[in-house]
Amino acid sequence: MIEPIESIAVVRSHGGWRVLRAKGPAGDYAFQVDAEDAALKVAKASQPSGGRVEILVQQPGGELRPFPMAPPAYPLV
Were 10 and a residue from 22, 45, 57, 65 both cysteine, which residue would form a disulfide, CB within 3.0 to 4.6 Å? Predict the structure, then answer.
């Protein structure tokens, strides 16, 4: 059986960056790099069993793309 994928998004918000997940906002940050780092930490903390997680980052045109440093739906160890 395939485990569900938890999505975490890093999006622009009021001149800064916000980390979002199904449970709601996970934090607001002034810089994109800080939001991406927080998204990685949230992903690791929310998946202690090594489940599948994807991190999506909002691009300048508004579309969400997979975080370049992480393949989609990777298990966190």
Answer: 57
Please classify residue 53 by burial: count the beta carbons closer than 10 Å to its beta carbon, then call 0-12 exposed, 13-18 middle and 19+ buried.
Answer: buried
Q: How far apart are CA 14 and CA 72, in angstroms?
A: 27
For the entire predicted model, the pTM comes to: 0.80
Is the CB of residue 58 less than 8 Å from the CB of residue 19?
no
Which residue in this structure is represented by tokens 């090594």? 50
Model pLDDT for residues 41-54, shown as the tens digit of each residue: 888 887 666 677 88
